[in-house]
Amino acid sequence: MKKDQSRIIREQATRSATREHSVPLYLTSSFIFESAEQGRAIFAEEEEGMVYSRYANPNTTEFIKRVSTLEGAESGLAFASGMAAVFASFAAFIESGDHIVSSRAIFGSTHQLLTQVFPKWGVTHTYVNTADIDAWENAIQANTKILFLESPSNPGLELYDLEKLGELKKKYPQIIFAIDNCFATPYLQKPLKYGFDLSIHSATKYMDGQGRVLGGVIVGNQELINKLMFFIRHTGPAMSPFNAWILSKSLETLGLRMDRHCSNALALAQALETHAEIENVIYPFLPSHPQYELAKKQMKAGGGIVTFEVKGGKDRAFRFIDELEMIRYTSNLGDSRSIATHPATTTHAKLTDNERESLGIKPGTIRLSVGLEDKEDIIEDILQALESTK
Ligand SMILES: *Cc1c(COP(=O)(O)O)cnc(C)c1O
Prior knowledge:
By secondary structure, the chain is of the alpha/beta class. It has two domains: 4-251, 3-Layer(aba) Sandwich (Aspartate Aminotransferase, domain 2); 254-388, Alpha-Beta Complex (Aspartate Aminotransferase, domain 1). 39% of the residues lie in helices and 15% in strands. It has helices at 4-10, 36-43, 58-71, 82-91, 108-117, 133-139, 162-171, 185-188, 222-235, 241-251, 254-273, 292-298, 313-323, 353-358, 375-387, and strands at residues 75-79, 99-103, 124-128, 144-150, 176-180, 198-202, 216-220, 278-282, 305-310, 328-329, 339-341, 365-369. The strands form two sheets. Strands 1-7-6-5-4-2-3 form a seven-stranded mixed sheet, sandwiched between helices. The protein has a five-stranded mixed sheet with strand order 8-9-12-11-10. The longest helix is centred in the C-terminal third of the chain and has 20 residues, at 254-273. Bound molecules: pyridoxal-5'-phosphate (PLP). Pyridoxal-5'-phosphate (PLP) is lined by residues 81-83, 86, 107, 150, 154, 180, 182-183, 202, 204-205, 214, 216.
């Protein structure tokens, strides 16, 4: 089997003596050694074998293999949540005195790590708020250990040029280049092929795709994954086998689902672009997006998030959300059900007006995670909510 989709469906945990067709759920904390000698050999890493589910479990191992296939990665690790993965991707490598370069538009909790947690350990950071590659290079210091970014960003859907960043990596091989690839998913964007070292995901989002379980995953080159493995084995942010079982099965349909998320999102973005009650629409695969060419170059499609600004500021945005009939307001994204959120008063509420402005978040900004419903129904719900709040 050469093609990704076949491998993702067919490469599964070894069949048990029961000869099941679909992989069972391995709810077990530990694994039996057939003999004292086998116990010794497995601990000495002379023989391969599972020991304890904090280290590895057939369900998490299968999930990791599938994500690695999708990303074209050598290896990976699974985590209890996306934030456990993001935290480990820093904490496993940084030392007191180190410096991190990061894009400014990052997930709220990642921003808290950089500004509240790591300074306690003497780790500093510089934010870069532009795609200009010179600005990224200028932010690098002699003590920079990690360069981190999200592309597309949340909720402004700004992109960073992965190819150019990959060239920068060649100039600074000692710096770990890490990307939170959650918004794009490995189906739409494969950062490792440009030279990134680590690709990180909140599996809670599109990988689950149905708003059920939390999970995180990091994939990348074997050497860095080994270092991470030491860190997580002894700090314990392991993914539960149950969540791995759910997530691994979900990966079988990731590509199909993403195609639909993207075509629905594009249809919505096009429908809103010329609407009189809309100030502006941001979607990477709309030709009006300032980085449309870059989006086409590095993403297979535009993703499932559409960000738009309703006319009339916060008051209108609130009334708009309350008037939605099918679409719900909840703090998640990447679900089969469409979700609306108001970033200025939720995910980005703690920022100053200026900070929000620089991230493109206005009082009237709505982030829509476009689901898998029929596109006509999604568009209709939004149009009726706009109409009834004029
Ligand atoms: C949700 C999210 C996270 C955090 O993931 P959890 O699974 O909620 O811990 C990190 N980065 C991005 C871009 C996210 O959307």
